C-alpha cells in the first residue's frame, strides 16, 4: 500500500527556467513552459517540466497546468490529491545545458548566477492562483506564494511530441532563469 502524500502546505526550494510564449493557433492565449529542479520538498528532491495556459474563470483569467511530468511518484500522488494537478511520472536525463524527458528535448543556459530578487506578491492574486479541475468537476484554486531571484536565460525546445506545437514552432517571448527560489503551495480551496 502506498503512503498518503504529505499534507499541505508544501514548502519547496529549487531552481529552474520559465519561458513565456505568445498566442498561437495551438494556444490562443499563449502560455508558459517551466523546467524546475526542486532541491528540497516534502517528498524530497525531484524534477518537473510543465506547461500552463491562462483560462477564463468566473473571477477572471487564471493559470491552469495543462501538462506536467515529474521524476517522483510521491510528487505525482501529492500533486493530484492536494491540488488536482495532472502530474505524470517521467525520467529526466540531464547533461550540460540539456535535458531529455519523455521525448522532449530542451537546450538551455542562464540558470546559474546572481539574479535580481523578486516576490510572487508583485503579481496580481489571480495571476498566481492556479485553477485546476477536480475529479468531480469542481474548481480547485491554489494561491501560490514565493520568492526568488531572476535573470535572463535562453531556452530552445528541440523536440516536444505530445506537447503544444508552438513550443517547437516559435521562440519564447522571454526566458527567465531562476537560480534559486522558495515556493509555498497552501491547501486548495473549492470555488
Helical fraction equals under 10%
Residues in β-strands, percent: over 45%
> Number of helix segments?
2
Q: Count the strands? A: 15
Unreliable residue runs: none
State the distance separating the first and last CA atoms: 32 Å
Q: How would you name the oligomeric state of the polypeptide chains in this document?
A: single chain
Look at the structure and give the mean pLDDT. 95
Structural class comes to: mainly beta
Instruction: Write the element-wise H/E pattern from the N-terminal end onward.
Output: EEEEHEEEEEEEEEHEE
Major sheet details: 8 strands, mixed
Shape: globular
Radius of gyration: 16 Å
Strand line-up in the sheet with most strands? 5-4-3-2-1-14-12-9
Write the layout of secondary structure elements.
Blueprint: E1 10-21, E2 31-40, E3 46-56, E4 61-70, H1 73-83, E5 87-89, E6 92-95, E7 98-101, E8 104-109, E9 116-119, E10 129-133, E11 139-143, E12 145-152, E13 154-159, H2 166-169, E14 174-185, E15 189-190
Parallel strand pairs: 4-5
Antiparallel strand pairs: 1-2, 1-14, 2-3, 3-4, 6-7, 7-8, 8-13, 9-12, 10-11, 11-15, 12-14
